[in-house]
Design brief:
The protein contains eight helices and 15 strands. The protein is of the alpha+beta class and 345 residues long. The protein has a single domain, classed as ApbE-like domains (T-fold, Roll). The protein has an eight-stranded antiparallel beta sheet with strand order 1-2-6-7-10-13-14-15. The chain has a three-stranded antiparallel beta sheet with strand order 3-5-4. A two-stranded antiparallel sheet has the order 8-9. Helix 2 runs antiparallel to helix 7. The chain is globular, with a radius of gyration of 25 Å. The chain starts with a helix and ends in a 19-residue tail after the last strand. 38% of the residues are buried. The structure holds adenosine monophosphate and magnesium ion. Adenosine monophosphate (AMP) binds next to helix 8. Magnesium ion binds next to strand 10 and helix 8.
């Protein structure tokens, strides 16, 4: 029968079509952008990636979060039994052996101290430990000045052969809060890369790194208004880049018309107050993390000077008056006068 013939032929055609589509369908049916969040290192962390296998991707994301927890256990100064806490307890009395990872991070931190004329200084903690932003506690001027001589990155002596850290002064303490999250983000990206992911974003608090694009489109990263977390005053298109923002709204309290917050000027031991936020864009999150904290301390003029001197970074700053300043790489393109369209008469 013509009818059966036609329908068998049609069915046959359908099967051939399905057989041809099946291998492609199996791959693409579950391909998706996967986004996960976790509370680690005292902040909100997030991973987003292009996934073609949900289970495998969930495992990869779990490895990134597990590594962030590991770094927190190594470097937190809040927890009493971390390696860094041991350094702060003992290094003024004797050299303390640390892991290669911690040693390398302290060495990089000291390099940033040199590069930023001491604006970035992990020994800020010699005074920093006197603040408790949750309890609204800050040292009075006398306590601050008494502890201030403890701040100086030259007090930290590293011995690469024995992998030890020593402090040359009693009262000196270090804290890696200005660089540890950037390090964790870079490690997260490395974990994903090794697992074969080439379109991904890893974020920890104010530090983000991106690899690849979103299929021909850039990733869009918002820079928040210092006065309103829900509002981005700038949306930056990025591919294969890192971006960090340091702001006076992360950990703070206000008292007597003044804001006491977590970024400390090593010269005074007081909170740095010549910017509201500093955003740095560059190649790695370690670099943008260290530099955003540095620029925040340096303030608008010296901060932009530093960024212009470095070839691989750009910055967006918000001043206390609400003015937005851009480094030359981000400034609007200069249109030659001749090409400005003239108004019709
Ligand atoms: P971020 O949000 O990356 O700017 O880091 C702020 C954190 O850096 C603070 O919570 C401190 O742990 C640490 N920090 C504060 N002041 C300094 C400083 N002058 N140099 C290096 N680290 C600092
Ligand atoms: Mg930082």
């Amino acid at each position: 029968m013509a009818y059966t013939e036609t329908s068998r032929r049609a069915r046959g055609f359908t099967w051939v079509l399905l057989a041809l589509l099946a291998p492609i369908g199996a791959d693409t049916a579950h391909a998706e952008w996967l986004y996960r969040e976790a509370a680690i290192m005292g902040t909100r962390c997030a991973v987003e990636l292009w996934s073609d296998d949900r289970n495998r991707s969930e495992q990869a994301i779990a490895s990134v979060f597990a590594d962030m927890r590991r770094i927190d256990l190594l470097m937190s100064t809040w927890k009493p039994d971390t390696q860094l806490a041991a350094v702060n307890r003992l290094a003024a009395d004797k050299p303390v052996v640390v892991s290669q990872e911690l040693f390398d991070l302290i060495r990089v931190a000291l390099e940033y101290s040199k590069e930023t004329a001491g604006a970035f200084d992990i020994t800020y903690a010699s005074v920093g430990y006197l603040y408790d932003f949750r309890q609204h506690i800050h040292p009075d001027a006398a306590a601050r000045l008494a502890a201030l001589p403890g701040i100086n990155y030259h007090h930290v002596v590293l011995d690469a052969a024995n992998r030890t850290v020593r402090f040359t002064r009693k009262g000196t303490k270090i804290d890696l809060g200005g660089i540890a999250k950037g390090h964790a983000v870079d490690r997260g990206i490395e974990i994903l890369r090794r697992a074969g992911y080439d379109r991904a974003m890893v974020n920890s608090g104010g530090d983000t790194r991106i690899i690849g694009d979103r299929f021909g489109k850039p990733w869009i990263v918002g820079v928040r208004d210092p006065n309103n977390e829900a509002v981005s005053f700038l949306r930056l298109p990025l591919t294969d880049a890192a971006i960090s923002t340091s702001g006076d709204y992360e950990r703070y309290f206000d008292e007597g018309g003044q804001r006491f917050h977590h970024i400390i000027d090593p010269k005074t031991g007081d909170s740095a107050r010549s910017l509201r936020s500093a955003t740095v864009i560059g190649p790695t999150a370690l670099r943008t993390d260290a530099l955003s904290t540095s620029v925040f301390v340096l303030g608008p003029e010296r901060g932009l000077e530093l960024i212009e001197r470095l070839q691989d970074v750009d910055a967006v700053l918000v001043t206390p008056a609400g003015k937005v300043l851009y480094s030359s790489g981000l400034a609007p393109p200069v249109v030659p006068a001749a090409s400005v369209p003239s108004k019709p008469d």
